[in-house]
């Protein structure tokens, strides 16, 4: 039987201690014909040596854009350079198990599935989840589902968003979506791809037995927060329909005020304002992208927006005291607002 051909796109950025092991793990995949596409996204130190080590490997393709294209641009370039019938995105600090890609292929080949995402586990304890079935909030927030908890799913389940750390789709679906919007650069682009998949009438599925371990290091810095907050708003402004934007305007504006206060207290208030400034200066792109995506969707907003939740996780969003009450109010608001979308 002919094995399905999978191209795994790996971005080499700065110095990544696990990059060699990541590539070796992909090459050891079973049940698939593997091609590893490495995009030199600004490799440094030992990662440069890793690229040289695999440069002549028959199952490895090395792409050198000459600059850091970000996760979105680097992934798009890698996918364009790939030859497989399936496209997988795999972080360079992540190790797949031999059967991981094959399990993802099996699921994405199922009826009505557009994206399959692996169970990303903590490297120091593979029983604990790093990212699983990722939720998406009505205000565009998204975070690692199940972080710090043991796996509880015995079978694949639908997920609102598929993490870009280790996901797989068919080449046909990737090309239909035309990959990521490169203006995102990094963060939230995988959420956009996931919601666009749902809007086309296809599902995103979390596969708990497709396991990958991750050298997880949580960090916050002003540039990262700038990208996350800017891109969250771009997601909402381009994917949410006019009725959704109207009914969600009050909580969205209130949340922006809270986030500005929180950002200022934490020392990245300037980055938050910079995100608003970028959106204003690039409003032509935002409008054009909105028109494009409104024309692409096949599922009514009222249907796909059932995926969205109203409460936030305090682990990722340390809002002021009273988060429980805020979540209760938001859940009540969304229960009513969702019917008006």
UniProtKB/TrEMBL annotation:
PANTHER family registered for this protein in UniProt: GALACTOFURANOSYLTRANSFERASE GLFT2, RHAMNOSYLTRANSFERASE WBBL
A molecular-function term among this protein's GO annotations: glycosyltransferase activity
Native species: Rugosimonospora africana
Residue span, Glycosyltransferase 2-like domain: 7-127
Organism superkingdom: Bacteria
Pathway: Cell wall biogenesis; cell wall polysaccharide biosynthesis
The protein's name in its UniProt record: Glycosyltransferase 2-like domain-containing protein
CDD domains xref list: GT_2_like_c
InterPro entries reported for this sequence: Glyco_trans_2-like, Nucleotide-diphossugar_trans
Family to which the UniProt record says this protein belongs: Belongs to the glycosyltransferase 2 family.
Keywords: Glycosyltransferase, Transferase
Any Pfam family: Glycos_transf_2
